Every structure is written in C-alpha cells, then in structure tokens.
Amino acid sequence: MKFIPDRIFGGATYATAGSYLLFTRMWELALGILIALSAVKIRSHFLAEVVSVAGISAIVTSVIMFSDKTSFPGIAALLPTIGAAAFIVANESHPTRAGRLLSSTPLIFMGLISYSLYLWHWPLFVFAKLASSNPLSPMMMTGLCTAAVIMSWLSYRFIEIPFRKKSFIHRRYVVLFLGAAAMGIMAISGMLIEQHSSPLSNRIPLPAKHVLDASSENIYWGGVCFQTPGDESSYGGLCRIGNATKGAEPKFVVWGDSHAEAMVPLLNTLGRAYGEQGVVFDSGNCPPIIGAHQIPPAPGCEEEKGNAFRYIRNHDIQNVILIARWSYYISGGQNNKISALITDSSDRATSSTAALGAFERTLVPMVAQLSHEGRSVYIVEQVPEQTQFDLRKMFYHAVRTNKNVSFISVRAEQSERTQALPNSVIETLVALPNVHVLDPTNLLCKDGICNLELNGKLLYRDESHLSTIGAMSLESLFTPIFKSMETLRSSSPL
Questions:
Q1: Whole-number pLDDT of residue 7
Q2: Do 192 and 252 fall within a single domain?
C-alpha cells in the first residue's frame, strides 16, 4: 500500500488531473470491488444501525462542508468514499432505518436515472451559461434541473432499459452490425469534415476574431522559467528568470500569488536586459505573508511561503519583490468569499475588519524583519480589477450575435475603493528603511479610467490578472529596481 500517499493523494495538488486520471481514482473503485468480493458482514443488528448512520453522516458532512477550496480529489475523498462503503456493508448485513429511508420511491427513482442525469446536466448548464450574458437566475437553474431530470428519464426508459433487457438488441449479429455501422458513420463524417471544412480562423465571425486578436501574444504562465542542476529538488523546485548565464547568482526574489506569476514576463525581460537573475516563488490564492493563512489554506501554500522565506535568508537575497491580489484576502473579491479571508489564528476570519487586522499583524513585522536584515523590499500594490471583464463570455457573445463587443474599463475611483483597505497598511511601510511601495495604477489609469485595452490589445487576461502586454506596460515602474541592482554590482569590488 506504499502507493497510497504519493500517488492517490497527489491529486490534492493537481486537482484536474487527479479528478480524471484512473491511477488517482482507482482506489475508490478498488474499495467497491473489495466490498463485493470480501462479502463483509456485521453480525450485530445494532452495530449495523450505527455503521449505517455513520456512513450517511460522512456523506452529508462532505456535502455540507466541502467547498471550492477543498482539495478534491485528495485525502478529503476518504470521507464520502468510506462513508458510502460503510453504508453498503451495514445494509448488506441487516436492514437499517437509514437504508429504508433511502429505499423510498423518489430516491430510488433518482438512483435509477442518476447516470443519465450525470451525462445530461453538464451540457445543459454549460451551453446555458455560454448563451446567457448574465449569471443564471434561480428560475433558470430550476428549469434546467427539471429539463435534465426529464431527459434523463427518457434516456433511462428508452435507451438503458431496452439495452439491459436485450429487448432492443437480442442477437449477436445485430450488435456487430450496429457497431460496424457506428464506426463507418464516424469515419465518413471525419472524411467529409476534412474535405469540406475551412480553417478554423475562417469560420470565426469577424467580431469574435477581434476579441481573439486583442487577447493574443500572452506568454503562458511558467513559460519563462529555467533551472540549473539541482533546482528540481531544491525549495520545492526553483523557477529562475532573467540572466541565464552560467554561474550567475540570483540577486532578487519575486514572491506572491498568481498576480506575481502574471508579472514574471516583464521581470524576466528586465532581468535579462540588466544582467540580473531572479527566483520566483508563486502559488495561487497564497498571500506572500508569513503567519497569515486562509482556512482551509490553498494546497501547497504554507510550504511555498516557507520555501520562499528560507531561500531569501539562506542565499542572502538583497531584493525582495512582493506581488499579490491584496484586496482579495481582506474583502473576498467581487463575490465576498469568506473562505478567501486571511487570519493569523486557528479561527476563520468572518469579516473584512478581522482579515485586515490579521493582514496588518503579519505583513508589517515580516517586512520590518526583512528591512532590519538590510534587504530592499518592494511591495507592489494591486493592479485595478476589471469587474465587468469576462473574455470567454465576450468571445461567445461575438460568435452568437456576430456583433462587435465593447470592452468596459473600470473607473479609477472604484479601483481605489477596492484597494483602500490593504493600501492603508501597505503605504505605512514606506517609513521603514529600504522599503518601497510601487503603485501600478499610476500607469494603468488615466483621466479617471483604468484602461482594459491599449492600442487594440488587452492589458488583462481576466478580471484581475494582467496580460503579458499589460505586464510589459509597467516597465518604467520596475526599471529603477534593476538599475539599482546594476549600480550596486558595478560598484562592488571584483
């Protein structure tokens, strides 16, 4: 069973792959097979009742407690899986009250159509979201759920049952014939598509092309990193940027969340231009602050923060650049997500006031410590959030309507309100020696508007992350950092 911790629960870090790949989910299937083959029985009726209730409780707890922040699949998958296994074993041993409850006619009906419902609900909701320019209303959600149930029953009644009972296909040659016919239809369809289709770009309406053109030229995240021998196993795996000359030593660290990642193309370019190498420590939904955390913390966040801080001190890095979506950890973003708020204790923050207090109590002493050690700390205030920007919706709207879409930029005053709380703390830190605050709004906002596009190119890749072009537009903001490093290097004795 040595494979369990590393390979099964490895899905906690790579959630998408962990959800779909067999080797990360096979233990769940294996548990069901084990129950079927072992024929485990509980002798005591009372014990069976207890195990049955415990199993149902585990499943219900998972439904209530798990959120979009839960690492799933991962170790969290144990709770509902073992709960289901316990319920099955208990009711195979003795009839239980919980079992009789789940044997009611409505629940049996939902169980019978469950697989069809699983298949039908997804395309219905996906296409409905794409077709609507606004979030789906509760009435629309109810209608879609009703439609999914009806379509699932029709699938069950007229497809699943006939195939199971072999009333539709009762001879082997019919199965072979239908299989061959299906393969033939697929082959002919593929040939026709290949012969008569035009290039994809020619089939996209012109307004939608404009959306694509405006969002082009993005460097994919992590695409500029390089490593030297030993980096893969050091500090969780190093991402070096800038000067790639053999023997060059890192002189700066970029530390932050996904907003730091969005800024890396610019910092890599400047590092190469000024002959300086840097190391990037970034992790999504992970504020670069020792002692502050979400509940539950983002996967790998605490480890990444520890690696960054240790690397800075172990390698005596003199220039530390902190970049994050600071307001998100204090106010929860556009949706006011409580799970995004940070705390410095074991209790979850339930308000912006509490999160702001934790922000101040943790960021200030950490920056003060770095400053006291003689390091230059550059805190980058958050870029303006484009609250009405959704690139995917704009693209599909242009495809559906064949009309040009307008990019609505956020007003500067709205951006200032969003960032007021974290900036009230960050801007006090300039009083510390060697601490500098960089404000990107001075370059991104003009005449009361924080621009979403510039010369026909989008400055953002989503509502809060800068595009590669957007990051590059901040060159003058970061250039002084690299000039100071270059000056120090040239004045140092060989």
A1: 36
A2: no
- Cα–Cα distances (Å) from 330 to 157, 212, 299, 365, in that order, read 51, 33, 19, 18
Is residue 21 domain-shared with residue 87, that is, in the same domain?
yes
Give the number of domains in the chain: 3
Task: For residue 115, tell me if it sits in a domain.
Answer: no
3-class SS letters over 59-123: HHHHHHHCCCCCCCCCHHHHHHHHHHHHHHHHHHHCCCHHHHHHCCHHHHHHHHCHHHHHHHHHH
| Cβ-based neighbours of 371, under 8 Å, separated by 6 or more | 377, 432, 433, 434, 435
Question: For the whole prediction, is pTM greater than 0.70?
Answer: no
**Best CA proximity match to 408, nearest among 448, 450, 442:** 450
Contacts of 69 (CB under 8 A, 6+ apart): 285, 294, 296, 298, 339
Rounded distance, CA 467 to CA 382, Å?
14
Q: Can you tell me the distance from the alpha carbon of 276 to that of 318, in angstroms, rounded to the nearest whole number?
A: 12
Output b/e per residue, 17-33; b: 16+ Cβ within 10 A: ebeeeeebbebbeebee
Tens-place pLDDT, residues 362-383: 999 999 999 999 999 999 999 9
pLDDT digits 0-9 by tens, 388-436: 888 888 888 788 788 888 888 999 999 999 999 999 999 999 999 999 9
How is residue 453 written in tokens? 């596009």
Question: Can you give the residue range of the structural domain that contains 187?
Answer: 166-196
Residues 257 and 188 in one domain: no
Query: What whole-number distance in Å separates Cα of residue 329 and Cα of residue 291?
Result: 13
217 vs 196: CA distance, rounded Å: 30
Helix (H, G, I), strand (E, B) or coil at 251: strand
Same domain, 332 and 461: yes
Reported as half-sphere exposure (CB side, CA atoms, 13 A), residue 453 has a value of 17
Q: List phi, psi (to 5°) of 49.
A: -60, -45
CA distance 391 to 459: 12
Based on the fold, state whether residues 441 and 486 are members of the same structural domain.
yes
